[in-house]
Amino acid sequence: MTEPTPQSSLSDSDPAEKKPDFELMTPLQFVPGVGSARAERFRKLGLRKAQDVLFFFPREHQFPPPPTRVDDLHEGKSATFIGKVIDAELVSRTPGKSIFAAIIENESGVVRIVFFNQPFRAEQLTLDRLVRLSGNPKLAGLRWEFTHPKYEIIDSEEADDAGTGSIESVYPLTEGVKEYELRRLTKQVSEVLADEIKEVMPAELRKAAAKALGRVDLNVGDSLPSIATTLRHIHCPPSAEALTAARTRLIFQELLVMQLALAMRRQSLTGRLRATPLDCSAQIKQRIIRRFPFELTGDQLRVIETIAGELQRQFPMNRLLQGDVGSGKTVVAIFAMMLTVACGHQATLMAPTEVLARQHFATLQKILAGSKVTVGLLCGSLGAAERRETLQQIASGEIDLIVGTQALVFDIQFHSLALCVIDEQHKFGVGQRVRLRQGGVDPHCLVMSATPIPRSIAMTQFGDVDLSTIRDKPAGRGEVHTYLAVDGWKDRWWDFIRQRVAEGRQVYIVAPRVGDQDMGNEDRGGGEGTGKEPADPIVELSDDEAVAAEDITSVSRTYEHLSKEVFKELRVELLHGRMKADAKQAVMDRFAEGDIDVLVTTTVIEVGVDVANATVMTILGGNRFGLAQLHQLRGRVSRGVHAGHVCVFTDGERSPEESERLKVFESTNDGFELAEADFRLRGPGDLLGKKQSGLPPLRIADLSRDIEILQVARKLAQELIDEDPAMEDESLTLLKEQVLRRYGERLHLGDGA
Ligand code: ADP
Ligand code: MG
């Protein structure tokens, strides 16, 4: 968040004020009341100087429970009670032993409080005092009693306030550091030093932000609070409203700084990058479109128009095309590639796995049959000689379209690369495309993703990427029905599968693991011979282990069980990521030909496998898959005219989170809804992989929660940069410094930005 600005001079403060005995840069041990032993412990929390304390924000805030009425008291449930002392008595029978008891009354009735051997209570809890007490009440006879409650004496005004009590800050702790020490320290330091921090957001900007936030129902008054007020209130909130305003300011500032960086980057890239303009006549475009054996959907045509427009520019397109599996993204990509070739340049299509690359290669060959366009394939299983020849043909320009796996296509020599399409990519770091720059020219870039990106991610990690979305499905697609299996369903489901196979359909059965070891996403990028293939072989079942054949999470066990027992009469085959590439291909081909009824497999089929006749899917151990993965899997059975059926089985007890996820999965077929739900359930880090995001982590803002603030910040940032691209206005100097300090290096903003 706000990075502290060292303050050089304190001398212009009001001379009447007592000069503070410590400053921003004062080492903590010299802050009154800290000392070296404590300072040593605070160090473990990253607190070294006084100013660090200002920016050591509470993890959360605890709101005092609302005061309880007598009729609402319950034994064993802690309560806060506010009332007046109407009777008090200290009784000492033997020396050193005493009982102090008092009766506290408010309009709802009376309670009794008792203290043993604490005679000094009698001096504090005198008649007519107003107190707020909290503790665990017990029924003693007909009266509620608090033994040794916590209490504080309050004045009547505060009591009228329904006893809001003080909101307590809760700090992250470390060994040897107590909550109360941090509360005391942050209070002491923020009271003295909050005014010393320089304000980076000019008053006008704070007002504009408050107004814009108000429009989305985030009310912080006429203006976001100043940094001094914010720092005081975040540590010691005087009220819930003040706390909200302070937090909103900090979140807003963090997001604004990020969005300013992204806006500056967009701005500077527009001026700096150079791409090959691809300008085609409307006639050529029509000719390309006519090559497709079907009518394009409205969304496809719309996106094609957008892309064709962008490809004409000198400035590289950087577009993310998102759409559910099967929505027809690849068709759009093929259009862009053919347009590139029609303009005399090369295009490449990168896929995450060899299986997918081969599939794209086949699709392209089919569509281009009888044309002069040449397509080349680059993948791991190519022989050395073949590979050398392909590379040579790419360099000489004999090959127009290059399909391959990502690892192989990066870093090769092209003749004239003008467009790069990246398929099924959802882990996309800022700055990827730099790798494909050749001779100072960047290719236009189109990324396809079937994992819809939540809005907030699109606005941050993908900050300089334009977004296109295909929502409508090609006509004539069957619906998909999703079921969550309940106990005892298996036999019925196996019967259902037999019926569908009898009708001529094909079936997937997906298990999460290959062997006995949990493989996670074992198939991503598998089959490339990267040397990273998992070492342990597929487990052979011994007689002993056969008992556990019902272990549904292992694909090999499931295969054994299904092929030998359940579906003896059907053609059952096994497919997983640890098979050799050609063996895998052979199984896929036979499945595509309809020579296999039931394919027992892992997530290797998650991406891109396209067999329209396969309409039934069983997902085993479904609780082990993420939402995005489940949805990808479901996409495999929504490709043809027949209705699809997906049944999810789980293993073991489901955690509440797993249940929630599966319920969401069952309830909607809309990838966008699922993505937003996933984001809510898992948070942003997981979705993108923290390291992949390319941006420094946020400290206060939470993208899954603060979407409205993010939108406001983005809009204001864009307006600021449109008006003042280099943030040269004097009032923005400090803000600009913060943007550069935090993002400058990461986003290459330093020079000329
Ligand atoms: P995605 O890449 O979005 O998963 P594809 O482009 O691979 O989707 O399309 C999925 C299937 O639908 C392919 O078999 C493709 O040929 C077919 N398809 C795409 N667009 C249309 C359309 N407009 N009409 C009919 N079929 C289409
Ligand atoms: Mg696809």
TrEMBL record:
Domain Helicase C-terminal: 534-680
Positions of the Helicase ATP-binding domain: 310-470
Pfam families the UniProt entry points to: DEAD, Helicase_C, RecG_dom3_C, RecG_wedge
Region spans: Disordered: 1-21, 516-537
GO molecular-function terms, A-Z: helicase activity
Tree of life domain: Bacteria
Residue ranges with Polar residues bias: 1-12
Alphabetical list of PROSITE patterns matching this protein: HELICASE_ATP_BIND_1, HELICASE_CTER
CDD domains according to UniProt: DEXHc_RecG, RecG_wedge_OBF
Keywords: ATP-binding, DNA damage, DNA repair, DNA-binding, Helicase, Hydrolase, Nucleotide-binding
InterPro entries: DEAD/DEAH_box_helicase_dom, Helicase_ATP-bd, Helicase_C-like, NA-bd_OB-fold, P-loop_NTPase, RecG/Mfd, RecG_dom3_C, RecG_wedge
Composition bias, Basic and acidic residues: 521-535
Listed name of the protein: Probable DNA 3'-5' helicase RecG
Organism (species): Neorhodopirellula lusitana
